[in-house]
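Need tokens for this chain, all 201 residues.
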Amino acid sequence: MTKLRTALAATAAAALGLAALAAAPAQAAAQPAFLAASQMPASSTPWTATPVFTGVPENGGALCAEYKIPAQNTRYREFATELDTNGVQITTVARTEADAVKLVDTLRTSLAGCGTRLEQQNPGLEAVSAYHGKLAVEEGAWVYSLDTAEPQIGSTDIHLFSVGRDGRTVTFVRWGQMGDLAEAPLTGFRTTTKTAVNKLY
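Here are the structure tokens for all 201 residues:
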């Protein structure tokens, strides 16, 4: 009887080991999920969304985050409405959680200094970056804005940004349209950001 119990225990252990090996590739292959068009901030015309693409958008990523997000292990989806409101979500899986923390810090620094940087690069442009606080979702998400104006041609644009993290996965969301911060859906964008981070896994 002792030999039988030993044999059964060994068989069970082997089965558990095989199950763990089978589960590992499935977990490794799991890709972070993306926002749907309907989960962007409310707009007077419906949002549309592209498929999810591999890599980063043109020009190295998105406004205020150019060349900050690595193309490796990164995917993105772009959004638009009929009224020139647009957006993008970029999600990357870092090699380690420490790398993900470092990327979040890099992006936050880039967003915080974006207005000053754009003014230096574009004489005549007026640009103001602002921080709108941290959101309590997974390992956190941080919201920023960029308000730009070109007095010579009388145009103004407003962009909202967020950076969020779940473990070693970082997601970056941008929303933009003509206008200024008073016209931006900041509350709705916070909800969109929370949804984006919660949807990752």
